[in-house]
Design goal:
The protein contains 3 helices and 5 strands; from the N terminus they run βααββββα. The longest helix is centred in the first third of the chain and has 16 residues. By secondary structure, the chain is an alpha+beta fold. It is 19% helix and 38% strand.
């Protein structure tokens, strides 16, 4: 991802997140990424509950994940988030997970999302739109 992140969150692997091989199960990484995205959005004033009350749903439409180095129980790690415009009606979160003990990249991901208006059609709300650069 290279560019500086908009947000970072430190977390720790819990025993129950690991599989029989003793490493974090691949599906758990999506939980880490989602938690960091939600914390980031909350920090910049995007309230999921308020959006939902108004009939606007923020949804993931695609997830691209590249697994690099596995995390193990007890590892501490950071999850970075950078939000960019993907198209007129889509945005992307560029995310990385780095193990803190050695700085190694554990996962690199691109999560593409949109907002669905009360009619179920893609439409980025103005508050969110204002945070994104113009589509290129």
């Amino acid at each position: 991802m290279g560019d500086s992140a908009d947000f970072g969150l430190e977390m720790k692997v819990r025993d129950y997140e690991c599989d029989i091989q003793g490493i974090v199960n691949n599906g758990v990484y999506q939980n880490y990424l989602e938690h960091a995205r939600h914390e980031y959005l909350s920090e910049i004033g995007i309230d999921f509950a308020e959006y939902a009350k108004n009939g606007i749903n923020l949804v993931v439409v695609r997830a691209e994940l590249d697994y690099k180095v596995p995390l193990q129980s007890g590892d501490t790690f950071s999850v970075s988030v950078k939000m960019v415009r993907e198209s007129r009606v889509k945005f992307a979160f560029l995310q990385e997970i780095h193990r803190l003990s050695d700085g190694k990249l554990a996962l690199q991901g691109k999560i593409i999302g949109t907002a669905l208006n009360p009619r179920g059609r893609p439409e980025i709300p103005e508050q969110l739109n204002a945070l994104l650069p113009a589509a290129g």
